[in-house]
Amino acid sequence: MKTIKFGLSALGLAIGMAASGISMSVSATEPTLSEADFEKAQLHYFQRCAGCHGVLRKGATGKNLEPKNTLKKGQKRLEKIIALGTEGGMNNFDDLFTKQEISNLATFIQMEPPVPPEMSLEQMRGHTKQYVELKDYPTKPLHGRNWQNFFVVIERDAGKAAIVDGDTKEIVTHIDTGYAVHVIKGTEHHKKDHAKDVGRFWYTIGRDGKVNKIDLWQTPDKMLVAETKMAYDARDIAVSGDGKYVIAGGYWPAHFVIMDAETLNPLKVVSTRGYNTKGEFINEARVAAIYTSPIESSFIVAVKETGQMWQVDYKDLDNLTITKISSAEFLHDGFFDPSGRYFQIAANASNKMVVIDTKDRKLEKMIDVDALPHPGPGANWVDKECGPVAGTTHLGVGLVSVWGNDPMNHPDQAWKLCYEVETDGAGVFIRTHENSDYVWADQLKHPEPEIQQSVQVFDKKTREIVKTIRVTEEEGKAALHMEFNKGGTEVWVSVWNRTDSKNPTGEIVVYDAKTLKEKARIKGLTTPTGKFNVFNRSNHKT
Question: Which of 195, 196, 373, 411 is most buried, most CB within 10 Å of its CB?
């Protein structure tokens, strides 16, 4: 056996995955890459693959990609899968990677996965920066805009967040953030606790674990007020009901971190490694969805691989109380019902929607749905027969599943499938508004451009699709993620410029929520994906 050392300078610079080189051994007959190709393939894997398959490649939403499995498929077969995608919900990557990059990636996943380093609380604190001192925070907005109708928009591959005025459709500013921000959340109204200036402060979490604090009252040049880093790979974030703390969850290392909401100084780190529902020890027990309960002084933390929801009290950090609720693997995206009591979250690989009672801190129900449910921020509305309901799209099939979610007034319908709506393609996001007659679903996971570039709208009353909207026809672009404006009169849909991800050729298309006709196009955005309306999010409008 000969030992080949692979330095990680490029990966460390891009995503902070390692502070030094790592060693791994390969025999002459095993797949090999040059040091430069290995570093680049590792970076590509982190950016595009690790979210579904795991840093250690043990699988979750995606399949296990350890060498014991990938070597059986062989180089050519793996290249074809990466290039063309699969019917099970994996995107094609032939429009993002060159043939050589696909080849290198196929080789990389046949080699032993490198293990990234851990991260200490001291290391996190070393990344904490204040761009605006607390004493210099304004006591009122320093601009004349309607900030409660701002949209905070992720510019994914640019490593930025855009602030867009919902009234004028102007881009107020672009803010530097971490790589591939996944979620942005702000302070929200709470039944027990009360934050000051609800909706003013917003917090980003990037796939490089970087956290940014945004102040919407500042002038555009000073809206980024603080930052830190809590992991090498992360996905979600939330703010306590009293506005004192921010919590973010790591994909790697497997932990969550509670930070001071004012300064972003990391205060407490808790490992999520442990045993899954089958009694197997999980080292890469990643934190997926994190939310704040609207009715309890606690965070809701989804530990993806263990199939556990952790309810974490935030009133006493020195004596942290955690209730661990077992359900099903692999927990991913979720949202609350209108009462704020029940958290509805997708267990992707188990094909279930899991319902957690956050008041009694117990598993309420598991609802069987179709392949790989993925509700994103979710949708709640009222059905003529089932009463209050919620819905999800699916990564693995073109379908919206709808279930009852009002056990108090509609116990016979609660936590049972009410109906399903077939769409043209598998999707990632579903959205509606209490003032709208319609529910919107995207079809991002379908490989055909015409479908991937279209969203479908169905009527709440008839349960029928009333319109398929082709959002863009430009090559290499996809339509995704819908968000309503403050009054529910407009729907904003992102046009993600996947193949031209380094230039501001993406846009947001604005539709009249009643007539479903196009109203405006907001141009000058780089890879816009998720977007969050300040009023709707801070008031729990789904």
Answer: 373
